[in-house]
Amino acid sequence: xxxxxxxxxxxxxxxxxxxxxxxxxxxxxxxxxxxxxxxxxxxxxxxxxxxxxxxxxxxxxxxxxxxxxxxxxxxxxxxxxxxxxxxxxxxxxxxxxxxxxxxxxxxxxxxxxxxxxxxxxxxxxxxxxxxxxxxxxxxxxxxxxxxxxxxxxxxxxxxxxxxxxxxxxxxxxxxxxxxxxxxxxxxxxxxxxxxxxxxxxxxxxxxxxxxxxxxxxxxxxxxxxxxxxxxxxxxxxxxxxxxxxxxxxxxxxxxxxxxxxxxxxxxxxxxxxxxxxxxxxxxxxxxxxxxxxxxxxxxxxxxxxxxxxxxxxxxxxxxxxxxxxxxxxxxxxxxxxxxxxxxxxxxxxxxxxxxxx
Length: 357
Hints:
- This protein is α/β, with parallel strands linked by helices.
- It has two domains: 18-37 and 260-356, Aspartate Aminotransferase, domain 1 (Alpha-Beta Complex); 40-257, Aspartate Aminotransferase, domain 2 (3-Layer(aba) Sandwich), CATH 3.40.640.10.
- It is built from eleven helices and twelve strands.
- The strands form three sheets. It has a five-stranded mixed β-sheet, sandwiched between helices.
- The longest helix has 24 residues, at 259-282.
- The protein is globular and about 60 Å long.
- The termini are far apart.
């Protein structure tokens, strides 16, 4: 360890993001990026911002973006918080809303940034096992806690928790904050944002990275009671008062206003997901029901790590987690039809080849 490091840094185990390869020839199905370009209106808005005003700081409150989010989700601007990607929004929420005396709760198979935040901020946590079918069981969260956080749909499983179940969870935990991380909600679920006016302990976090194809602009936001949002603003004001730049604000507004492009993109991805799910099943894979822009699949006769390596040799990359309970699964991003056909052709050759041998 470096002697100049603080004791905290020496203990940190940072989040490891999906690989961003330098080769352009790869079929990249490992980081859940949208395979389609953003709205043409976004590109137009970005070009409009490329002028001398870049010498000026952006609006620290990103009011125009908050107004666009409010219009889209039918909430007031004081119920909206924005940040540099949903990861920053979540980081602020952990510090502002989840750092209490009791441990927080989240699933044992979930977004792997959650325990990283806990390590960074000194937050105790208990991981709650998913069921054998990889579902979140509401009854398992009926215990004292300092807060609850989970993705919906869950990552990396893609399983969806229905809004009625989220209401049950909120009703059973009115004394603590419940954070619903909705990075993938637009690909098959119903947002819990409709519940924020009924539950002052609910914070809903979303991103424009996935369904709006803006992973490169880093735009995240939260919806919740004005009291929760004020706590996030206090942390933001103590950390970085200008989290979103001029381009991100303009691009985010344009993306939210172009509902036709958004609908076309997500429908194309959902159609391709259903096709890929059936095709994988035909190859003998077990595929978990997914409401996200990825599928989680395993084959009873083929090691997941070996499959991932063999796919890479064919210039196709997917995500493989060497973690308990899911080490035999591959998380496969839904790409274009051409990308997914290349994947299926490769898997067909690999599965058939081993079976023939």
